[in-house]
Design goal:
Bound molecules: 2-phosphoglycolic acid
Number of helices: 12
Strand content: 15-25%
Shape: globular
Oligomer: single chain
Distance between the termini: 14 Å
Largest sheet: 8 strands, parallel, barrel
Structural class: alpha/beta
């Protein structure tokens, strides 16, 4: 039985003070939901304060990106060593916004996945097709390529630690959610790609989250699908009360 993992992705929203206030509010709202793992992906500048705010709660704090080197002349970047040092044990990698606006490739994302794992940080590897790719029948091809690229050359033990987030790009921030059946079909196909790469033990244990306009109204139905193991939630994670409803659905 796979547990559900519900992660918020705040993207580039909130100041440090607002972030801390949201964690403080969320802590008590979700305290009773013990069956679900809760993660908040926040901007790097507030990670340290959020880790402190979340102490003693069941909220884990995640970065939204990192570089694949430990240290050095890489102006503006943050490293896995820095994340570990402040108690951050998760990182979102390969989000479609990073691929689209910052030119991140599968090969580069793979380097980051390997760097995260080498430091004991759990990567949340994002994959997903664009609208024109879905419409031209390339959904499975694109997701397969991104999973294979992002998880290339991992050992089975490493692969077991990766969380995959399937986020159809056309559903992100658009209010257009994939139907539960549509999402389930792609989740199942992604699990088969993992099976092909790493075998059944890894594939059957891999958490595959759905992302793309998941909200308080649709979360329960999506997470009821057999291959949907949680969510990566953008807009609906910004407000603690709304996000708590999504977490409850995962519980
Ligand atoms: P959304 O974003 O929930 O606002 O669609 C999801 C994501 O990009 O992770």
């Amino acid at each position: 039985m796979r547990k559900k993992i519900v992660a918020g992705n705040w993207k580039m929203n909130k100041t440090n003070c607002e972030g801390v206030a949201t964690i403080n509010e969320l802590k008590s709202l979700i305290a009773e939901y013990k069956e679900v793992e809760v993660i908040i992906g926040a901007p790097a500048i507030m990670l340290s304060d959020l880790v402190k705010a979340a102490e003693g709660s069941n909220i884990k704090i995640s970065a939204q990106n990192m570089y694949n080197k430990d240290s050095g002349a890489f102006t503006g970047e943050i490293s896995p060593v820095m994340l570990k040092a402040i108690g951050v044990n998760h990182v979102i990698l390969g989000h479609s916004e990073r691929r689209e606006y910052f030119g991140e490739t599968d090969a580069f994302i793979n380097e980051k996945v390997k760097a995260a794992l080498a430091h004991g940080i759990t990567p949340i590897l994002c994959v997903g097709e664009k609208l024109e790719e879905r419409e031209s029948g390339k959904t499975l091809e694109v997701n397969s390529r991104q999973v294979k690229g992002g998880m290339a050359s991992l050992t089975e033990d490493e692969a077991k630690k990766v969380i995959i987030a399937y986020e159809p790009v056309w559903a992100i921030g658009t209010g257009k959610t994939a139907t539960p059946e549509m999402a389930q079909e792609t989740h199942k196909a992604i699990r088969e790609v993992v099976r092909e790469m790493f075998g059944s033990e890894v594939a059957d244990g891999t958490i595959i989250q759905y992302g793309g306009s998941m909200n308080a109204a649709n979360a329960a139905e999506l997470m009821a699908q057999p291959d949907i193991d949680g969510g990566l939630v953008g807009g609906a994670s910004l407000d603690a009360k709304t996000f708590a409803v999504v977490v409850k659905a995962g519980n």
